[in-house]
């Protein structure tokens, strides 16, 4: 029985624990969910709910698509570089959904759990764009499972109200620049975080908008 319960944990067959929370780190029912949201005590991934304020969802927005992309690129680069201060960052995911439990959510997966814990501890006392940051460890480990598979290609019929993550991507140029900058930074340090000193970590070079 124990082996069976372990095998179905966090799946649709699990009648106790919420599969959506386990897979996505958020659930549309929130605290009213009939199933348990088991918060991890350790994880490589952190979640900052509602951090990105997308101007596209502002009724007064007058930005064109190019300006909206530049706005997002500036945010993405800023967050990436800030998070690199806590340790080696492997993935940064920003939600483009428009439903209450996913809108503006930012997920960051670090190489090591220690980096994620340090980031979570410190970010909860910081502000961004005149708003307090709320940060928590997330159970998400595989964003291929958390992201909507229909959001690319033909498109998802549920649009921004889908309960799976619709990932908002930076421009190809920024993505390439951040990847190369981070690789160069790590190479110059020649380090493995496990054996590196705990001195403040320099960040990859930022672009200017």
UniProtKB/TrEMBL annotation:
One of its GO terms (molecular function) is zinc ion binding. GO terms for cellular component: U2AF complex. Residues 12-40 form the C3H1-type domain. Residues 187-196 have a biased composition (Basic and acidic residues). One of its GO terms (biological process) is mRNA splicing, via spliceosome. Keywords: Metal-binding, Repeat, RNA-binding, Zinc, Zinc-finger. The keyword Methyltransferase does not apply. This is Splicing factor U2AF 23 kDa subunit. It comes from Fusarium musae.
């Amino acid at each position: 029985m124990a082996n069976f319960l372990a095998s179905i944990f966090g799946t649709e067959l699990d009648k106790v624990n919420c599969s959506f929370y386990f897979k996505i780190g958020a659930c549309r029912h929130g605290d009213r969910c009939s199933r348990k949201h088991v918060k991890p005590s350790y994880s490589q991934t952190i979640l900052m709910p509602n951090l990105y304020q997308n101007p596209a969802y502002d009724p007064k927005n007058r930005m064109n698509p190019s300006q909206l992309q530049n706005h997002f690129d500036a945010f993405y680069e800023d967050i990436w570089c800030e998070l690199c201060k806590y340790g080696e960052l492997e993935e940064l995911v920003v939600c483009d959904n428009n439903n209450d439990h996913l809108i503006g959510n930012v997920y960051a997966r670090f190489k090591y759990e220690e980096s994620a814990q340090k980031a979570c501890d410190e970010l909860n006392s910081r502000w961004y764009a005149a708003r307090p940051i709320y940060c928590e460890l997330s159970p998400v480990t595989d964003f291929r499972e958390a992201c909507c598979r229909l959001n690319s290609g033909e498109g998802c019929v549920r649009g921004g109200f889908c309960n799976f993550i619709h990932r908002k991507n930076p421009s190809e140029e920024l993505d390439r620049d951040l990847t190369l900058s981070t690789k160069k930074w790590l190479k110059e340090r020649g380090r493995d975080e496990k054996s590196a000193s705990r001195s403040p970590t320099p960040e990859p070079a930022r672009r200017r908008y």
